[in-house]
Amino acid sequence: MEPVRIAVIGAGLIGAKHIAYVTACPEAVLVAIADPDPAAQGLAEAHGATYWTDPRAMLAAGDIDGAIVATPTALHEAAGLSCVEAGVHALVEKPICHELDAAERLNRAAEARGVRLLTGHHRRYNPWLAEARRIIDDGEIGRIVGLSALFSVAKPADYFKPDWRRSPGGGPVLTNLIHDIDLMRALLGEIAEVSAMTSSGVRGFETEDTAVLTLRFENGALGTVFCSDTAPSPWSWEQSTGENHPTFPENDENAYRIFGTEASMEFPRLRIWRQIGGPDWTNEITVSAARPARADVYTLQMAHFARVIRGQEEPLVSGREGQRSLAATLAVFEAAATGQTVRL
Length: 344
Prior knowledge:
34% of the residues lie in helices and 24% in strands. It has helices at residues 13-24, 39-46, 55-60, 76-85, 100-113, 127-137, 172-188, 237-241, 297-309, 319-338, and strands at 4-9, 28-34, 50-52, 66-69, 89-93, 117-120, 144-152, 191-199, 210-217, 222-228, 256-260, 264-267, 271-275, 285-289, 342-343. Strands 14-13-12-11-7-10-9-8-15 form a 9-stranded mixed sheet. A 6-stranded parallel sheet has the order 3-2-1-4-5-6, with helices on both faces. The relative contact order is 0.15.
């Protein structure tokens, strides 16, 4: 079977990462790169791909089966619509768009044209998530009562040199927490209500550096979340899973705790705490741990995208899924600004 022909729109930090995974995927071949920065031309030449400054012109030239959109978030809608107009299936990095109206326009256009959209929530491909979902679905920890999640890291000063990282939308809520919200949806189902507070008290930027929120899921479970990029800790998905090792050091801590009526589970390392003789606070508690196989989530995402392009699989994280995670994330800002609970 011939490999699918992939173009990458946006060759910055994330785009370069996608380029590396396309070239490593036996089911795909990199055919083109579009980026207005002339430095991207050398990257295209190094991979034997054509170079374009204008993605619309690249897509109009044809011979492209799928495109990865890795531009700045504010440009996702325009790049995604260019793919749709050309009939090219697209993997759009998260967040799918910068605002809900844009995500709705993109999804409607793709549905009308028959173009498959994927959102780049790469964590969904982690086999540890699939195992946690199985444990929950099989009732091994009983009815889910609630969840507690942490994302606490210390980003270095150099991280904030680009202006957009100091401006609204550049903080940890839309950059990092959206991944956790997507994971929480994958684990516990849809989020019904969001309450939140944010602070920029440490760095004093226009954007937040810390947020706390409470969630009510449609199944009745409650959740609490602490998110900050100003406080060093071992509690974040990146460190717990080692997905981005060695950029982020790996440890054996867990970022989430999920509470059920029969037992509780730490995630992502899947430690299950259960009381001997049944749920009773006077009973001794024991712990067991599952160890699913490791896998490179970007490799799995790229192979899945190739099969989606061929029509062999449905998108694991569709454009609509990306839109729902965006809606729950943007609700954090609304709830924090108004002091009101936002109902989704």
